Amino acid sequence: MSNHFQDNDKIMDHFFNPRNLGTMKNPDAFGQVGNPRCGDIMHIYLKIDNDIIKDIKFQTYGCAVAIASTSILTEMVKGKTLSETQKISSQRIREALGKMPAYKQHCTVLAEQALKKAIEDYQKEKNA
Ligand SMILES: [Zn+2]
Fold it and tell me: Is the overall model pTM greater than 0.90, yes or no?
């Protein structure tokens, strides 16, 4: 089997049909991260009620793996509590997406960071 991410049907499905793509008006939390290595930029918007992620939207400007990582992440966290989402690591994203070359793994880390950043900002504001 080839190690090209273009041969990974799951990555290609999320790349061509991203889930929860878009922006959100008045989000409860917003996270933004950038990756200087391949230029990926991710925005994550959250609607949070009673510590549950009620809705999530994302915009990712970048490579196919970055888009697929954010897309699959939105499916993994929707309806979860904030403490449950803390357990969603980039490794879990990679397991969900399947085989990808090592040089693309940092794109999954970026998705984890974007979500964490949004939740951190939300908790900071709540406790301020
Ligand atoms: Zn990338």
Answer: yes
